[in-house]
Fold these 2 entries.
Entry 1:
Amino acid sequence: MINYIYLAVIFPLIGFLINGLFGRKIKNEIIIGTIGSSTVGLAFIISFGAFLQTLSLPVDQRANTVELFTWLSANGLNIKFAYLVDQLSLTMSLIVTGVGFLIHVYSIGYMHGDKGFWRFFAYLNLFIFAMMNLVLGDNFVVLFLGWEGVGLCSYLLIGFWYDKKFEKGTTADAAKKAFIVNRIGDFGFLLGIFLIYLTFDSLNFNEVFSKAQSLSINETTFSLIALFLFIGATGKSAQIPLYVWLPDAMAGPTPVSALIHAATMVTAGVYMVSRASILFASAPSIMMLIAVIGLLTALFAASIGLVQNDIKKVLAYSTISQLGYMFLAAGVGAFSASIFHVMTHAFFKALLFLGAGSVIHGMHEEQNIQNYGGLKKYMPKTYATFLIAALAISGFPGLSGFFSKDEILWYAYANGGFIFWLIGALTAMLTAFYVFRLFSLTFLGEERFDHHKVHPHESPSVMTIPLIILAVLSVIGGYVGIPEIFSGENGNLFEKWLAPVYEPAEQKIMHYGFHTHFQEILLMTISVILALSAIYFALYVYTKNKNIAENISLRFRKFYNLLLNKYYVDEIYDAAIVKPIVTGSEKVLWKFTDSFIIDGIVNGVAKIIAIISESIRKIQTGIAQLYAFIIVAGIAAVLLWIIFTL
Amino acid sequence: MSSIPIEYYLILSTFMFIVGVIGVLIRRNAIVVFMCIELMLNSANLALVTFSSYLGNPAGQVFVFFVMTVAAAEAAVGLAIIIAIFRNKMTVNIDEINIFKW
Amino acid sequence: MEHMQENLILTSLLIIPIIGSVLVLFFHEEQKKIIRWFGFIISIIAFIISLIAYNQYNPAEPQFQLIHKVLWIKSLNISYHVGIDGISLILILLTTFLTPLTLLSTWKAIDKNVKMFTFSMLLLEAGMLGVFMSLDIFLFYIFWEAMLIPMYFIIGIWGGERRIYASIKFFLYTMFGSLLMLIAIIWLAVYASSQTGMFTTNLIDLYKVGPTITREIQNWMFLAFFLSFAIKVPIFPLHTWLPDAHVEAPTAGSVILAGVLLKMGTYGLVRFCLPLFPQAAVHYASFISILAVIGIIYGALVSMVQPDMKKLVAYSSVSHLGFVVLGIFAMTVESTQGAIIQMVNHGLSTGALFLLVGVLYERTHHREIEYYGGIAKIVPVYSTLLMIVSLSSIGLPGLNGFVGEFLILLGSFKSQVLNSWWYTIFAATGVIFAAVYLLWMYQRVVFGEVKNVNLFQELTDMNARELLVLLPIILMIVWIGIYPSTFLKLTEVSVQTILQNVSINTFDFLK
């Protein structure tokens, strides 16, 4: 099965072609949806088969390459379309195809009746194709192909309803913003790729990473490479300063938000950092930068999520925040913890988004949570699964989120220091709070909508069954990564599974001091207590005593507005960067430099010649006598000259 | 051969030529300009005959016949052109015939 | 050994359009359909012949192949000397590929003076092919000038409102550069005569003479050649003829102008400036690369704020060709390979963009972006094709643009001639800006609400003929994107040969 891994990439492409070229003619939603979902399902089966096969191999033979053909070749550069099947790429493939499959099935229900149904499934399949290239590629260029490909699909899907208004602009504006901010990150990524090629003479993962260990390359080069790659990661994975596209990306249909902007595409940056772990580990200063940015982003986004009123916006900022956690983990050297959180986050965040979609669907496209309330009795399955997801993300003991988040917090403490743990734990508290604020305002309490206008109803099975499956995964998904303190020596299966990928990096990472199991359990307990109290507090405020929330928001009016307006970051970017460039291009570059100066010179030269010609032509007066006079004068001059020189 | 020094004839010839040139350059009436051109041609004739006589070479006098023929032809054509222009522009004032002005 | 002094295939390739253009003159003006078909078939025949030439070409051999040499002007030792290497071949293929498609696209667009138009186009094709094949610098100059006149007519007769201004500007601007080049050509030939004892215009011989010219004089000769090519490419700040020419030209004219004519400038840089004057080329490389990078960013930014779609695409050409020039003067195998493939890519993508804009213009006679909006609903097939072509222009991996841009940027990053990362860093910002201007244009034209109700009546989706014109281009876009080896293999040895020659004469900068 490993040798056929490329089929897992090709099948979704075939799905894209079939639905894209013939979807309009097929018309039947069930057929289109089945084609779209089954290609991803098949990809999952193939990935799973490859996974089982890899498990059966001895540990040191678990990285295998499947080559297809040579793509780019010039001089020493030899990039092939080839796929690396190892523990990390298999993990990511399973997540992508597994969660992807569930979301495809869900979409059959969610997008029912949409006249672009076939287009939606075509784009979704194209996305899976690109994402698979990203996670399976065996060199930086195929990764970049997938990287840009998912960016394209993100653009197409955010702007899917292309004539719909969204906030101050249109969905197309949001899509364009996503693509361009991503591109800014890609600019950094490309520079990183070039520097890698310059340093290592190759772009193939195996070659680059083994040279990174064996050759002695100075740290500055590693730092620059890591920095450039990380810039790319901040773009794709929505970290400070390039996160601004993600909240706007909520303009797209909710399954898109679930798949692309929660479970898979945004984790591409984390995957990339993980894959190039040796490069990052060799640049400790950049690792610190990554950890700090991850941490700050986590806190920053969580604070914004506290006060948002659009159900999808809360989840969007939550995603940014959780991604921050993943980068925090990577930054302190806990690469497998970051991937672990990618996995659990995929489960519960996709579930949260799909549940939100179910609510939006049932509430006839209303997205403002202030207009929800008491939906528990109308949508019991959505309610139950949403609750499970909320508990998971809050780190409720025993659920998947608890294990992954706690592992991150522990490593933050162990490798980073107390302050890292503290801010991380604080953010966890905020996470629990905003999620349960969302939960309470949506499902509990009194109904704040008009029964005559809106008839909330549960979603059909094609939508609720994926919810249930994801809920199960959110519960049990963490057990593969139980920390050693609970499960003993052979415990953390997940970490052991991924360890060979990170071994070279591990050697370079400094471990701070010595830590005991006691400390680990203590910290764990504290964060659980914080989480539980936040949950309780949120439930209390938003079901029993809303006044507390209102009073606080009034007392801290300025701060509240700051949060509500997302710290005005978009406005700042617009004024400082976008407007100057656009206005500058128009007024200074085009109108002035190009039209006035450069073209002015060109036309000016023509004008000067015309002026000279004009004045010279005055000699032609048309009066024959003047011509005769000139002839005579000329002859006289010549004669005189001859006479005087002879 | 004759007792009149050659310079006298040549000076007369030059004088006639200069009068002719000035006339061509200054006079406004096209017919007068043609007369001055004839005067220039005749001054050349005079010079030719003078040298022919003083050097004893008949070639000069023969050449005069050529000059006179050419002068006659040129006068005929020129006057024909003047008449054609006059029919169009009703004037023979050169200052007003500046059709070639660019 | 493949050199045959009497290989006739290239000459036949050249002759066919010339004969075709003369034969066209014998038709009556009313037989428009026949004339159009005739022109189209002639260009298809030329394409087939070029494929045969491709077949005969051996990519592994570094010398010029398929040579045909006939002594022409004995006293000056000027011959009719044609031959190709990988670089010429790929550009010849581009020319013969685009010309039939261009002619096909004018079926409805050009209605008056169809005879003259077909005549001009065929003559233009002959001129372009001649430029790419000439191995005698005098012959090259003749073809170079020859293609100015048909282009002048095409813009001036069938163009837009300001066509006379645009065509005269184009003609005089280009000719000015060419005259300087003529001086340099004569100077070079005379210099060669002082070295070898024989006045020669044979490029292969001059390749041996060129590098021996003293620095001072070589610099001047280089600049003379460079100026002419720089105007053609165009390199900032000599680009202002381009927006006017492109906008005012008819669609077919723009396609050929952007698709092939601009490549003649970059081809000249590779064929003449680098091998004939290597020391000067290396000396000026940094300066030229700075101009190229400025062109990339400037072109993109000015493109962004254009209200007219054609002008937007025209300025985008300045931006894209900045990449090509950077690739050439970075002088690494990767970057020069990238530059050449990018020449082809630009011809395809920008040609397609102009064709698509032309499709809209044919129906509504409006090019302003303001006029459109929301056309996705009305013309979905068109919108899809426009998206694919825009993505190709943006450089999305998987499509052709990425291959060229990636190789160019990678090559210039490690270039020892340029020896600085900053060129690449600034040039790479071009990828951001390209996305900005194209997506913004796309969004304003295709997405959103239909603001202009006239569009419902005026716009119909692509008809079979238009699809027939665009689909081959899209096929090539995808082919070059996924499997560029076919094309990269063609030019690799030629590029290496040229760079090795430069390197031998200057310093060893090839790794």
Note: Chain A touches chain C through 51 residues (CB under 8 Å).
Entry 2:
Amino acid sequence: MKWHVLRPLWVAIGLVGTIFVARAFMVPDDFGVHGQNFTYGYHRLSNIQEWKDFPVKYQGRETCGSADCHETNLALLDSSTHETVECENCHGPSIDHPDPNEFLPLDKTRELCLRCHAFLEYPNSDRGELMSIVDRTHKRRYECVECHNPHDPKEYYE
Amino acid sequence: MSCSRRDFLKEAVGGTLVSTLPLSAFVLLTTDEAKAAIADSKVRWAFLVDTTKCVGCGLCVKACKIENEIPYDAAVTRTWVERYVITKDGETHIDSPNGGRDGFIDDKIRDEEIEPEDIAKAFFVPKLCNQCDNPACVQVCPVGATYQTNDGIVLIDRDWCIGCGYCIMACPYGVRFFHPEHKVADKCNFCYHRISKGMQPACVECCSFGARRLANLRDPDDPVTKIITTERVAVLKDEYGTKPHVFYLGLDANVR
Amino acid sequence: MPEDLIVHGIEWTVKELFVYPNEYIYWSIQIVMYPYMTGLVAGAFVLSSLYHVFGQKELKEIAQFSLVFSLALLPVAAMPLLLHLQQPARAMEPLLTPHFTSAIAAFGIVFTAYALIVLSEIWFVYREYFVAQVHALKSETGFVNAMTRLVYRVLTIGAYDVSEAAIRVDKKAATILAAIGIPVACFLHGYAGFIFGSVKANALWMSPLMPVIFIMSAVVSGIALCMLTYIVIMEWQAFWRRRRGGAVEASKIKGAETDVVNKATRYLLGFLVAAISLEMLDLIFRGYTAMKSWDILRSVMYGKDFINIFVLQYTLGNLVPFVLLLLPGRTVKRTALALLLVLFGVFMMRWNVVIGGQAFSLSFSGYMHYEIPVIPHSVETFKEGVFGALTVIATPFVLFWIINKFVPSLRRDVEGT
């Protein structure tokens, strides 16, 4: 038997061995099949907590009304046609307001209001039912909030 | 050649078998296996979209971008709203400018004027990741960078994704994309960081019309689950066998 | 445009009608290059094995050359992937945590296995030569000679026995490896076809025929490239020998041997017919069954991509070389032209599959046009542009030139198997 024939095999085994050694260093220990099966559950386990720890930006209406803040506007909103509109839709995400985030990026532009209130004549769609305007014919030089109170849209300022 | 025919055949067959060894590592999934593994989970997230209520304001798309730190002006989005205008001649006009991020203010579709009297029906369809039961995107990831949690959400490991794009090609719904800053795959995850704390996804929170709702299919008392199980709902592209978990009320046949 | 707004794909994708917001041509020129290069690798190896395993004696010279060229092509097969990955530093992960349900995960295993087989086979074929060089350089002085000798010493891996028995064992081992290598080479390229064929989301790619079509056209391209390079090199060397004049042996100025070329051409034609038949079958079936995607596919194939598919690929790349190779009085020059067209045709096939599959939206209601970046203005437009592709094409020839200095594959008098 001419043993030199096996030399390439030793090289091959050496290479595969190196890959396994590298694997021990480079692959995180919690990498494996978790929960389901190999097809859908092969991953690094600690990633799940990383996603759970992702910072929250929008806090929701309940937070705006907690600690007795913003009572007036909230009360106004709750009895108006805008009662289902979220505060943060116009005021932006509150994140950790009020500390240190004291002022929120309030959006007062026309474009924001037009999202719902630009008239689109669509039959059988709720969009067609909303109170709306044709943008180019309604007070183009003004922002909507100069005349309408967003917390109580039926209230006009003259 | 000193090799006999028998020797050759033996070697060739042996060699072929050896080279097919990687194939045997293809783990075949049986639905029973998968069901058993997640049977004990008390949560299976699902979503209900009511297209009869969506008015196309696009505040959901904006909120999603801000909440999930997708660069606001980048032309990718985790969720989007499509506008369908079906005219009386049977043509379907569809658009989704910036994914609906700025709402739908213009009645022109790609600079095409459509006269209101020509419109047979028009509606808006929000779309997002379906968190499928058989996610094709997870199946094709070569390195295990994307996976499904026990509560049904498909997540992406940003530190492990190599950016090959196979998952993006494999998704029939087009919900995946490359994050322009992180340079890895990204997609909607039902705001996993929020729902794990008992909050609603940002898009659900910001919808003023109730067009988007989250559900836990394992909770029989969940009002949204009741709707999904008792009312007529549909899913997108079920012919691909992905078993999507975003259910639609009022889904029109023209929706692509 | 600020860095964070450059979405991958936006710079070379033009959308038409309704396309989902996140859809772009993500798999562009480098993903066209990748199956093209692995196809050349597989084809070169199969050509070499036609001699080593099936004893086709007329192919001995070109088989020597193909084997080494296959090795030169191998690292170049991995290049397009490195250029395409958004995270190239993580390129080792398919070897570290392969998710075997993904066809791409097979890449790590198959690539490594194939590399080992080709390297081992070359070792067995050239070991006697390496040992001879170690002995020949022993008496030479100088740093370059010492370094060269060191390289040869490493290449022998310490196996210096060149007795008749040892050489017989070498030849047998090479034959066995050539035999094992054929299914592995087929797998190396077949899985690339599987990568596309198994994507159910893509109406053009999804087909069980895809892996077979890819293998057939891969072998075609591999044989064509080896034949073409062999012809070019042989004619070039003969040209220079003739120019230098002086007393030269007749056998040294022959150029490409016509019987070698003829034999290889017969195999090429066989695989070409198989490749074309399968593609025709796929096309006919799609039209006949007219699934939901047929409307948009038809408008892409018979409309927008008509020239790419029917003129460039099928006519210029398949039909014309077919005719050129079959017409009587075939010369080496005419064969070379046909081979060039075949290589172009196989490239267009890869292009039409990869780019064609992304030419229509998942919505089936819109299109995407691919505008390949020509002059790069950023790293990404270089990597995924014309110059990135040219870099990939040029590299195997550079590598071959280097490898050939130590593993002479074109010498007519090298004792091989």
Note: The mean pLDDT of chain A is 89.
